[in-house]
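Dear Dr. L.,

I hope this message finds you well. Following up on our conversation about the binding site, I have prepared a predicted three-dimensional model of the protein together with adenosine-5'-diphosphate. For your records, I am including the exact sequence and ligand specification that went into the calculation, followed by the structure tokens. Please feel free to forward this to your student if that is useful.
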Amino acid sequence: MSKKETMQFETEIQQLLDLIIHSLYSHKEIFLRELISNASDALDKLKFKSQTDQDLLGDDTELKIRIEVDKDARTLSVIDNGIGMTREELIENLGTIAKSGTKAFVEALKEKKENALELIGQFGVGFYSSFMVAEKVVLTTRAAGSDKAFRWESTGDGSYTIEECDQQNRGTCVTLHLREPGDDDQDYTQEWVIRNIVKKYSDFVTYPIVMEIEREEIPTDEEGKPIEGAKPVKKVTEEVLNSMKPIWNKRKSEVTEEEYKEFYKHISHDWTDPLEVIHINAEGILEYNALMYIPAKAPFDLFMPENKSGMQLYVRNVFIMDNCEELLPPYLRFIKGVVDSADISLNVSREMLQHDRIVGKIRKNLVKKVFDTLSGMLKDDREKYLKFWENFGQVLKEGLHTDFENREAIADLILCATTAQDELTTLAEYVDRMPLEQKEIYYLAGEDREMLKSSPHLEAFKEKGFEVLLFTDPVDEWVIQGLFEYKGKKLKSVAKGEVDLLSEEEKKEKEEQLQKLGDEFSALINFIKKTLEGRVAEVKLSQRLTESPVCLVAGENDLSASMERILKAANQPVPPSQRVLEINPDHELLQRMREIHRSQGETEELKEFAELLYDQAVLTEGSKVVSPEQFCRRLTRLMLKAAAGEPTAEKEK
Ligand code: ADP
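The resulting structure of the complex is given below.
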């Protein structure tokens, strides 16, 4: 047998442990729920694996969770005959941070101490919560199919030990050496305390949770009648503490709010109550029960590749698999829940599920039900919907691009910032507010709402009284391309291509004016174009500017500035594109420049102006100027000149 080895927890584990102990002290009892959940997961895993490998179960076929108490030694053990762990798994699962992104999460946790409880909830502290009530935790485990067992032990102070040990049965035994209870603490060696906690948190666990209960009984005679005068004798019986009734198979009226919440916490490893419960008892051609939850908070790894579907599949009460991706599309991966159907084969595999017609139909129904629930929430409880949107809007939007069939339904659910009001708006509300003469839905995408709001691209729209949607999620531009139009109205970026805001008459007038101005300005336009060669595709008189002197506009089919920035930040190749520099002929500066050009020709000063105007346009679209240093130098020169001569700042009125 190998020697006992002492190993160090990864720093982050120790930090996490300290946080758990110090921020969850008023929720100590949940440690038992966490251990039972782990045991139940281990049994699920074994069951799933044994479908393809019958030998794994051996003689030990009665899957259950046992709680053992030793009052004198003050220990409490949770024992399962599940999948168990190998030595490597032990080290990986209970000594290191295996999940990517967890380190960053622990960092965030340390900074936001006041929200620790909420954040920890999203993470699921599981096993480590034992240290809230135990001064020492000993875990022995033997993996299914292996003949080696290991003992893991720690007092939660930076290190743990591992050694080989004897263990006859497959599975895991976690033994807590309990601390002496403080004044406010419950005594976890008391039968009724354990019974209450199990009932409260783990009643629906689908495996029996058993405990040996000692009772004093009056001996009975052959007919089962108590013998009079006989002394009571101690009798130990194994009792099942949980009802095991799968709550998803109950009728809605039979389930209490509390039960819904506890079940959610059991399957999600979340500590916060869910935002919404969706319970379906489908009867008729397609029979199934489903219990789905919309969490209140997005998990920290929602956008990481390891984030999997939150759905479990059961067939007639029998657990089949976790993370069942076929039950809901990826953009609904935040939903946690269970589906149980009698119409699916017990031996179904992941591969088979993809082509299973019944699963396909169930999926369709589930998606519809989720949409119905969300649109109901949007209509009846805007505040609650906003909470949902804040947490999961970005994921839901992915569906606009990936689920063609449901695009309309998803589009109805999206919320956007807008120039018209501080509150977010739906597309339907936007369309309702559109003035008659407005034909398209206008939007502007970028990183920051405040910055977008003051973008020169909006000027003509503001003047016209046309509302513009402001998209600030990094996925938005990609998403909009998937949406393309809403209720027959095209979505059009105000930072791209031509804008068409005017009535026929106004257009005619404007065109004539521009043509005239074009002649007047054409020399200046050519000069600016020459000066900025290689950086702009064209210089044009603008129809969208009313206040600012210049702005940059992307071609109708080019990437917008913000999309370019996103791609660059992600180290993606950015196709070369040049923007159009639009100049505002009504702006005093450009009129002056035209004057200078006419009277003095292509002066150095005019070149500097052209350069500065270009950099200005780059800055206002939210991008970086190529050479900030040069930009500043030019600006300083200009300021010096102004300071030496006439004051340039507007006089106070
Ligand atoms: P979580 O359960 O949220 O993954 P835990 O810290 O509770 O986090 O557990 C870490 C991992 O240790 C689990 O994912 C599981 O792989 C393993 N584990 C914990 N308890 C058991 C058990 N009773 N049987 C087998 N594996 C277990």
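In brief: The domain at 5-220+231-240 is CATH 3.30.565.10 (Heat Shock Protein 90).

With kind regards,
A. P.
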